[in-house]
Design a protein that fits this description.
alpha/beta; Rossmann fold; 9 helices; 5 strands; 58% helix; nucleotide-binding; kinase; AMP kinase activity; transferase
Length: 193
């Protein structure tokens, strides 16, 4: 299955992606990891990305989609993949859909985690406090101010993807505020697995 998980930071996408990887046996693809791997491997698209990053610029949508196009050709992704954190914009979604179509592939599901933003901020604050209480280092992005900035960026750049995928008929939603096991069950029902 080819799946995209959408939702703001802290909504539980990463947790559910791990569960999907275990259940479906398909890899979770991280654009950051793929980018670093392509650069390290010296692939043609990796070399393009390296040149851009060496200039201190952001890697273009075309390069990111090219890296994903290469990655989904690898054996472990032949039967599907889970994307969390990509696409981030409608332009990326359009380029990604075109790339899939060119390969004769299509998405099976786009699952959006719906959340209450106020409760989500409270969840992140609580997670940071619990982490600190265990004596573990708190993730930088669990700082409430940093988190609110990331949430604003999501709202401005990525939230329009909901309407895009709704127009394509692909969008399904789950209540990301429910307990983890309930969210897992809701995703299972959406996927029919």
């Amino acid at each position: 299955m080819r799946i995209i998980l959408l939702g703001p930071p802290g909504a539980g996408k990463g947790t559910q992606a791990v569960r999907l990887v275990e259940r479906l046996g398909t890899p979770q693809l991280s654009t950051g990891d793929m980018l670093r791997a392509a650069v390290a491997a010296g692939t043609p698209v990796g070399l393009k990305a390296k040149a851009v990053m060496d200039r201190g610029e952001l890697v273009s949508d075309d390069i990111v989609v090219g890296i994903i196009a290469d990655r989904i050709e690898e054996q472990d992704a032949k039967s599907g993949f889970i994307l969390d954190g990509f696409p981030r914009t409608v332009a990326q979604a359009e380029a990604f859909d075109q790339m899939l179509a060119d390969k004769g592939l299509k998405l099976d599901a786009v699952i959006e985690f719906k959340v209450n933003e106020t409760e989500l901020v409270e969840r992140i604050v609580k997670r940071a406090q619990e982490t600190e209480a265990r004596g573990e280092p708190v993730r930088k992005d669990d700082n409430p101010e940093v988190f609110k900035t990331r949430l604003d960026a999501y709202r401005n750049q990525t939230a329009p993807l909901s309407a895009y995928y709704e127009r394509t008929g692909m969008l399904k939603t789950v209540d990301g505020m429910k307990p983890i096991d309930d969210v897992t069950q809701a995703i299972r029902e959406i996927l029919g697995r």
